[in-house]
Amino acid sequence: MAAVPPSPPALFDRLVAGAPTDWAAYVEHAFVGGMADGTLPQACFRHYLVQDYLFLSHFARAYALAIYKGRDLREMRAALGGLKAILDVEMDLHVSLCAGWGLPADEVEQAAEAKATMAYTRYVLETGLRGDLLDLHVALSPCVIGYAEIGRRLSALPGALDAANPYRAWTAEYAGEPYQAVARAARDTLDRLAADMMTEARFPRLLTIFRQACRLEADFWQMGMTLAE
Ligand SMILES: Cc1ncc(C[n+]2csc(CCO)c2C)c(N)n1
């Protein structure tokens, strides 16, 4: 019987394997550890939440750009689904999470963007503007897929989902099946795009985009930890 050749690793797994230090600095950041055991100062989480609202509004623009960059109606509709999920579901969830933390919607909307928020969101948008759909989805991937991994890891740690942990709602949201499914769909999108847009010669440039996005995610946690503006 002829041997079946092993299938190549999925693009996202190759990117993580190519940037182990940057990936670990993001998904294992002290902010995440502080949410797991509940020791993260609540002021840090509030600062993060406000900035994350502003982050998501720019992130919606990145999905709008993915509609524009779509090569056919299927890709355009897929990106439209992502955009609607953020505008119609995610932003509302965020507003109610903020309200629960004593942050009224108008205060959140009018907050000034921190430099880390600007750096990350504009990096993703600029990468998508100058590149193609694969460049854009690689820039988005640490964000969409990383949070699912963080949620899964956190939920396995003792205490992370205890009633006494102030961050349990955040962990439950990202560890939950609906968000895990969003992340799986993002992996599939990457693999589908890679199947017809990826050449080996492109990989180093895609890895650079991935690494930068991971570093900017770690800086985003750091901004929350230090209350940086
Ligand atoms: C800094 C930061 N990084 C990643 C996410 C996770 N995330 C990014 S887009 C989106 C909506 C669904 O695609 C979610 C949940 C976040 N919220 N904030």
UniProtKB/TrEMBL annotation:
SUPFAM superfamilies: Heme oxygenase-like. Its EC number is 3.5.99.2. Residues 23-225 form the Thiaminase-2/PQQC domain. It catalyses: thiamine + H2O = 5-(2-hydroxyethyl)-4-methylthiazole + 4-amino-5-hydroxymethyl-2-methylpyrimidine + H(+); 4-amino-5-aminomethyl-2-methylpyrimidine + H2O = 4-amino-5-hydroxymethyl-2-methylpyrimidine + NH4(+). GO terms for molecular function: thiaminase activity. InterPro entries: Haem_Oase-like_multi-hlx, Thiaminase-2/PQQC, Thiaminase_II, Thiamine_Salvage_TenA. Keywords: Hydrolase, Thiamine biosynthesis. It is an enzyme of class 3 (hydrolase). It comes from the Bacteria. Pathway: Cofactor biosynthesis; thiamine diphosphate biosynthesis. Belongs to the TenA family. Catalyzes an amino-pyrimidine hydrolysis reaction at the C5' of the pyrimidine moiety of thiamine compounds, a reaction that is part of a thiamine salvage pathway. This is Aminopyrimidine aminohydrolase.
